[in-house]
């Protein structure tokens, strides 16, 4: 009997994540309201909180899936350019990030829409997904800068991810004058190419 | 009599901007509620909408002041390092941006919290403030890359502003693992120094 309850709980958990994911893909975090989720899932509002501590926890679960899709998209794009140098790979990754964000704007925005200002709030699995994503960047970066200390490579990896994120974020929101998307691609190339050039010119 | 009405309107406008600015400095855009503003200003809620089309317009006015403070802080910091090279100036600006954002987090966040996804929504004076801020970056950048075409300098100016913004944004929100603020400074130096090095190594 306990096993049956457990199974129903797990089924409801997956069902709620599926429903929340569809809603977030469609319109972002504003589409996540307990009453709507309960209606879509055919359960009571209270049942949601038997499965998730709060709606943040549910959105986190969807973000986990979005991170996975983002990583797959970036790595798929890199694999379709097998003859690239490490410096070119960084640009390809930057463009793939722009492409994913532009085609999945609501879900991508939701990755960064959750309040999590203290370390305490960020679950370990989330940080681990983030580290996996950063490792994709660290590898070609370390190849471009073979003499750079590991600590600086780690810091620069985060710096480059944040840089490209900033370009994509402000670019897609047209915050700093209307830059068309192909110009955003060129902007990413300009920043990254000039950055990696410093290593190649030794 | 019309002049008197006009004067009272203008006084209320300034009073509301002052009140909204204090609230935004204190807690960001969430502190802007018509009822609270009316209470602080000692006016009816409806009177606010006689002066501003909507609350967005009021927040925009505060953002104009914040932009001015940001520009003053960046230029003040640059002026206190008169012997810097153009490449060093870019790093100094990046650090000054981090410093301003960190010390004025709610007001700085509000600069980017307003919904303005289409060109239509952004007033001309706002774009003009943004252009003035970008011009501060374009000057040393053009000096570092004297052979770069003007179009690319313009694009790279936006790219660098967005990059530093991304580093500061994700860094202060601790989105991608806890990076202490002095490491954020080093992250900004690493990205910018490696970028400008490509020009110096010719």
From TrEMBL, chains A, B:
Domain HTH-type transcriptional regulator MT1864/Rv1816-like C-terminal: from-to ranges: 93-183
Keywords: Transcription, Transcription regulation
Keyword Transcription regulation appears in the UniProt entry: yes
Residues making up the signal peptide according to the UniProt record: none
Pfam families: TetR_C_33 (PF13305)
Name of protein: HTH-type transcriptional regulator MT1864/Rv1816-like C-terminal domain-containing protein
């Amino acid at each position: 009997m306990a096993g049956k309850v457990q199974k129903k709980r797990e089924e409801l958990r997956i069902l709620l994540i599926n429903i929340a994911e569809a809603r977030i893909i469609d319109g972002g975090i504003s589409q996540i309201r307990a009453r709507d989720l309960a209606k879509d899932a055919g359960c009571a509002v209270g049942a949601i909180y038997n499965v998730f501590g709060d709606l943040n926890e549910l959105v986190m679960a969807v973000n986990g899936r979005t991170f996975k899709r983002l990583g797959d998209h970036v790595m798929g794009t890199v694999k379709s350019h097998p003859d690239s140098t490490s410096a070119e790979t960084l640009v390809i990754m930057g463009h793939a990030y722009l492409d994913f964000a532009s085609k999945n704007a609501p879900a991508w925005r939701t990755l960064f829409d959750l309040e999590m200002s203290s370390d305490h709030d960020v679950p370990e699995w989330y940080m681990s997904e983030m580290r996996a994503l950063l490792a994709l960047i660290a590898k070609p970066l370390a190849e471009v800068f073979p003499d750079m200390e590991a600590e600086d490579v780690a810091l620069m990896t985060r710096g480059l991810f944040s840089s490209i994120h900033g370009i994509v974020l402000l670019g897609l929101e047209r915050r700093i004058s209307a830059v068309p998307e192909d110009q955003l691609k060129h902007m990413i190339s300009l920043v990254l190419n000039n950055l990696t050039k410093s290593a190649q010119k030794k």
